Amino acid sequence: MAFSGYIPTFKERHSFAARAKDAAEARQQQQNKIPVVIERFEGEKYLPLLDRCKFLVPDHITIAELMQIVRRRLQLHPDQTFFLLVNEKSIVSNSMNMYQLYQQEADQDGFLYMVYTSQPAFGSIK
């Protein structure tokens, strides 16, 4: 199913207060998990949409393990490449764990924001 219209981001669909409350509740209920929002990059044409964008990810898994989870959810062919960007700008080390990444890159609302794309990008995308 092709969708050509603009899809509002998680931040655009939910107020800061609602996002902050949601992230705080998630962290309080499951302290060993990181609240993560993973969305398709705005200009992405080749990768499908995820069935949802909000995830609670174990804090001990590495970026490489998270990428395998996302790859499986996207049902990508083994030959298809994709990249995860943090805060729409940074490619991070695959060996970094989610706790370390969260400490460095979490948004003020308590979520860690990531986008996936089929093309690597360096510097700011916007």
Automatic annotation (TrEMBL):
Lipid anchor positions (Phosphatidylserine amidated glycine): 123
Keywords: Autophagy, Cytoplasm, Cytoplasmic vesicle, Lipoprotein, Membrane
Gene3D superfamilies, alphabetized: Phosphatidylinositol 3-kinase Catalytic Subunit, Chain A, domain 1
GO CC, any one term: autophagosome
Organism: Cercopithifilaria johnstoni
Matching PANTHER family: MICROTUBULE-ASSOCIATED PROTEINS 1A/1B LIGHT CHAIN 3-RELATED (PTHR10969)
Family: Belongs to the ATG8 family.
Pfam families: ATG8
Keyword Lipoprotein set for record: yes
BP GO terms, sorted: macroautophagy; response to stress
Membrane topology: Lipid-anchor
Compartmental location: Cytoplasmic vesicle, Autophagosome; Endomembrane system
Name by which UniProt lists this protein: Uncharacterized protein
Transmembrane feature ranges: none
Keyword Cytoplasm part of the UniProt annotation: yes
